[in-house]
């Protein structure tokens, strides 16, 4: 004879709380004390209680699922972002439905429309939101939405983002303060808001420093594009004193190109990135970068979305901005010898 299914009443009895409290705890409602929530979740896990998803959806019109639409799911940035989102989702008893569109606006539009009826709310990162009507035309109506690192044409949804301009200014000034006068910048995707703001910060910092000059190289946030940019930098007859890559993955690709050419970082050329992905501290030399709490960014965005879902209506608030922190490691240092002497050699 089969084992009798555990009910919500069994969980309530074991946890010594009401059925209503169990329901609120499992559904992620905020009006449950955290110790009580943990107790209920522990009992439910121990008893292997699993709510009947279909019945719950019919009665509450809730899927207990959050949709997440991102440009990509590959790379440490997105891995950390999803980790932060997932951690908050699991604590609230929610599941995630992930989708990516690999830089194609038609694919993103289709991904957004496909979420209709499947999720209770959406987290979206979109470089196409600046286009008038793009989000309004493709987002399911009345669905709670929170944006991540997305520039809106007409602000209509809460947005969690990074102060990319300030971060790029801080990093550029750090490299200049070390005595480097010629800086190269490896940019990100043309249509990416974060990439454009980091480039703007670099240009503004260079323009504000007497005697400084900058050169720019294309990239796409992937390590291979950083490697290509590193090789292009080495091929120039006017090698820069330092390189600032718009993200850590490109900085690591650039570091590999320099190592292949026999250059030592930072003795021969300084190097810096942006994001502070976990790998940044474990390469040699360890990477100077701008620290962004990527997991925190994702977790806070989901927390805000859950508030909207529970409230049943959108409440537009000012932008939530994370300010990056300069993290100085081994890859940036003052010039080891006079700049003029360094520029007499194209490769070493």
From TrEMBL:
It comes from the Bacteria. Keywords: DNA-binding, Repressor, Transcription, Transcription regulation. InterPro entries: HTH_LacI, LacI/GalR-like_sensor, Lambda_DNA-bd_dom_sf, Peripla_BP_I. This is LacI family transcriptional regulator. The lineage of its organism: Bacteria, Pseudomonadati, Pseudomonadota, Gammaproteobacteria, Lysobacterales. Residues 6-60 form the HTH lacI-type domain. One of its GO terms (molecular function) is DNA-binding transcription factor activity. PROSITE patterns: HTH_LACI_1, HTH_LACI_2.
């Amino acid at each position: 004879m089969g084992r009798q299914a555990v009910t919500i009443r069994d969980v309530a009895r074991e946890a010594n709380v009401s059925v209503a409290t169990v329901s609120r705890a499992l559904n992620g409602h905020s009006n449950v004390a955290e110790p009580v929530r943990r107790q209920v979740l522990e009992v439910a896990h121990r008893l292997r209680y699993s709510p009947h998803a279909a019945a719950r959806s019919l009665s509450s019109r809730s899927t207990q699922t959050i949709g997440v639409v991102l440009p990509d799911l590959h790379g440490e940035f997105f891995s950390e972002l999803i980790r932060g989102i997932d951690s908050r989702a699991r604590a609230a008893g929610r599941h995630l439905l992930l989708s990516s569109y690999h830089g194609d606006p038609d694919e993103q539009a289709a991904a957004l429309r496909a979420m209709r009826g499947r999720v209770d709310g959406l987290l979206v990162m979109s470089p196409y939101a600046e286009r008038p009507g793009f989000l309004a035309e493709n987002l399911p109506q009345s669905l709670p939405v929170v944006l991540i690192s997305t520039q809106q044409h007409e602000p209509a949804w809460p947005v969690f983002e990074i102060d990319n301009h300030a971060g790029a200014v801080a990093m550029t000034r750090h490299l200049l303060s070390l005595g480097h006068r010629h800086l190269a910048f490896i940019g990100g995707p043309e249509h990416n808001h974060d990439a454009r703001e980091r480039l703007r910060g670099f240009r503004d910092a260079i323009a504000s420093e007497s005697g400084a000059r900058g050169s720019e190289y294309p990239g796409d946030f992937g390590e291979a594009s950083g490697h290509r940019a590193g090789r292009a930098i080495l091929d120039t007859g006017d090698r820069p004193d330092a390189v600032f890559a718009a993200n850590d993955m490109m900085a690591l690709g650039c570091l590999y190109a320099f190592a292949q050419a026999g250059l030592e970082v930072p003795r021969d050329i300084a190097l810096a990135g942006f994001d502070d992905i976990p790998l940044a501290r474990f390469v040699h030399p360890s990477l100077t970068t701008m620290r962004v709490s990527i997991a925190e960014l994702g977790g806070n965005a989901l927390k805000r979305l859950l508030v909207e879902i529970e409230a049943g209506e959108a409440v537009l608030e000012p932008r939530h901005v994370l300010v990056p922190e300069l993290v100085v490691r081994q890859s940036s240092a003052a010039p080891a010898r006079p700049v003029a002497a360094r520029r007499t050699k194209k490769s070493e």
